[in-house]
Amino acid sequence: MSTVCAVSTPLAEGGLAVIRISGENALSAAARVFTPFGGKKVADMEGYTCAYGRVTDPESGETVDDAMLTVFRAPRSYTGEDTAEISCHGGVYIARRILRLLLANGCEQADRGEFTKRAFLNGKLSLTQAEAVMDMISARGELTLRSARLTREGRLFSRIDSIKQSLVTLLGELAAWVDYPEEDLPAVEHTALCGTLSAACTELEKLVRSYDSGMVLRRGIDTVIAGKPNVGKSTLMNMLLGYERSIVTDTAGTTRDVIEETARLGELELRLSDTAGIRQTDDKVEQLGVSLAKKRLDECALIIAVFDTSEPLDDEDRELLSYVRSLDKRLLIVLNKTDLGAAEEEPDLEGLPSVRISARSGEGISELEKAVASMFTADTADPDLMIFANERQKHCAELALERLREALGAAMSGETLDAVTVLTDYAVSQLMELTGENVSEAVVEEVFSKFCVGK
Ligand code: GDP
Q: What is the domain-level CATH number for residue 269?
């Protein structure tokens, strides 16, 4: 395999930049451009050691930078190959210049994710572990990081592997019994057969479900703040975002555009849009806002419906309330402007989750955060939460699950064991695709093409 190199740190000014080289000629290429101070030779450096020295252009003899070289010797490196890393001053020009020197001295430019792909091809990582590397990099909160770390440590692989093992054992028994009926083998016991299949289904169902929780953590929750004009939607949004964003005015109906921003609430991220109210109106521009608001309400995952608690609910409030209730979305009622004192008449919320706040003073905001968190993080409380990293993994698990359910159905209805065998066999091959034990080159290419260069 060729020797490749890439700048592994972002191409931006910073304290350090790291250029990574991996492959058979990694150390000789490094030796051509890097000379340790004090006369030591790169070729003599042991694995896991580093040297301080100088990067020079071997052709002109010109010094480029002072740098550190770290050496990893095969197979004890990330990729499993000889690897060298040059840490230089973090300038875009310096990093590119050193990269060019390496390209002129026996290295090729690494593709996206090439280092991790080599680690996978050299058996250092399973495919799920490799994918978790990407997930760790993109983690934006403790829960996603923890899940990615567990997967990176191989826990997802072991879980899938143990499901697979139970099915492989079952297939062995089925095959023996079907192929050698004359041998006096014990028949595959019906209860045990159904038990194994149904346990595998339960375990896979759990993993597939975790994907949705994972999506909430990774991508944030699409949230719409709805309410009639002037109840304090923009003020609430600004409060959640921590700064002034939409124009807050006293004239009803001023927030006509849908504004989108991201607010962090503990582990969760809300993708907020502060929308116009949805009242009937003759104003053309406002009508446009209303239809946009309805569309957003249809597509979102969480609706925060805001009411002004200092006044009794009017028809417009009631219209909104019944509209958002009809949408089958997670819904939080916010009774705003508590600082003005409550209206005489308590609104009837028919048991909907609600919080009282003052968006102006911030009172009640932490209760609001807690209420939202309890709607979304119930599934993520499991300390062993394992989240599929991507659609690919989830899709494989779903296909396996579908076949296993069919196999279970066939077994329960007393169909021939051949059908059970074929379906179970297919499920096993899907699980092996998930872990990368049995995966086509095209899938591998696809997985690593999503990585960044230098990883
Ligand atoms: P929107 O039309 O629903 O976006 O409402 P705004 O956020 O623009 O607020 C309308 C008016 O109500 C502004 O004058 C705000 O300052 C005021 N307002 C918003 N929230 C509160 C609150 O909690 N208490 C009080 N007293 N006034 C508020």
A: 3.40.50.300
Burial 108-145 (b: 16+ CB within 10 A, else e): eebeebbbbbbbbbbebbbbbbbbbbbbbeebeeebbb
Please work out whether the CB of residue 336 comes within 6 Å of at least one atom of ligand 1: yes
In what order do the strands lie in the sheet containing 83-89? 34-36, 49-56, 63-72, 83-89, 16-22, 4-7, 108-109
Distance 243 CA to ligand 1 centre (A): 15
For residues 418-440, average pLDDT:
91
Q: Is 376 found in the same domain as 235? A: yes
Atom of ligand 1 nearest to the CA of 338: 23
Tokens 């930049």 found at: 17
pTM attached to this predicted model: 0.66
Domain count, the chain: 3
Is 74 near ligand 1, meaning CB less than 6 Å away? Answer: no
| Tokens coding 330 | 């997670």
Closest-CA residue, ligand 1 atom 19, reads 232
Tokens of 21: 């080289």
In one-letter notation, the amino acid at residue 325 is: R
- Name the residue type at position 31: A
Domain boundary residue, one of 321, 356, 380: 380
pLDDT confidence of 256, banded at 50, 70, 90?
Answer: very low
